[in-house]
Design brief:
The structure is a homotetramer of 102-residue chains. By secondary structure, chain A is an alpha+beta fold. The first copy, chain A, is built from three helices and four strands, in the order E-H-E-E-H-E-H. In chain A, 39% of the residues lie in helices and 33% in strands.
Chain lengths: 102, 102, 102, 102
């Protein structure tokens, strides 16, 4: 089962600056080979269910290994059986419907 | 790695009444043997990372099998390496701080 | 417009123990008079849109005032125009479908 | 209080294709004048707390007016009192910490 997901990892107990943990997580994503895209409040990712959640788990492991005692992550995950859809399709599908002046 | 998680499954394309899909998902949770608790906007669940996400996946499979072409699920997942914590601990930890001086 | 919502506040930069911040937020909820219910990964709340989000804002203000430099909150919010529904209705609607064959 | 937020609106009871509702919501965002950016599983937005949540409310109103009887929205909202931060800052802060090509 293929998924399109979005997740944002919040390390807890490591102070106020989180960007190096998010960057470490981006490196885990790079290593995974899965298609992904960073935005200002999370990362889009797509792939088989098992792989996507295994990658998010590796993010947790990496961030804990960097010293974060606790992590709270929010994930959105979409599946569909009517047709295939990619990250690009989803954005294109919306922008094609924006009207003249949208 | 043990997790405390919360998730809510939204079947798309099956009309406005979602409760029978949520109920089917509760039965998947029952079958799993994992500790879980329904609330008004999702379900708390705890257990090993792999098992928790395998159960959520089975919810998607069950709900798709019931006819939902598309599903969007929101998940929060917490991990910690400083100590163990259960669903009950989390609630108790907050309620102990309410009231006189909370 | 009435909403049923669920939210969980994660204070950042205040160490690993978050329960006293969550408890402070519960007190803001009590002061609001809105119907609400704590669970292990957030709080259910219902009421008019403006009031619910004003309460969540006051939680942020209270938690910042307690010293948290940064907060990340996840909110789910549901609205419907087909009929009224309360927190209790939502749970009852699911549990009525559990059991004999679900 | 300024916020950086991310939200995704899921209309329920209108069939499987949601993009025209998401597009309508993008138009509400355009009208608001707030800085925002669509991604594959939601939209980043920044601005004063009241304005951001008023815009999300207008999205609900617009989508209900288009015929959706029910909507479930997931929102992440971040506030900080230690310094100002924009959508661009958040992405730049992470990418600056990625290693040689990471």
């Amino acid at each position: 089962m293929n998924v399109i997901a979005d997740f944002s990892v919040v390390p807890i107990g490591v102070g106020v600056s989180l960007s190096r943990y998010v960057a470490a997580c981006q490196e885990v994503l790079e290593e995974s080979g899965l298609s992904h895209r960073l935005h200002a409040y999370g990362t889009n990712i797509e792939g088989p269910w098992e792989e996507v959640f295994a990658v998010i788990r590796r993010c947790h492991e990496r961030v804990h290994a960097m010293g974060a005692p606790r992590i709270s992550t929010t994930i959105k995950v979409g599946t569909r059986i009517d047709r295939d859809q990619t990250l690009n399709d989803k954005v294109a599908s919306v922008t094609s419907k924006l009207g003249g002046g949208g």
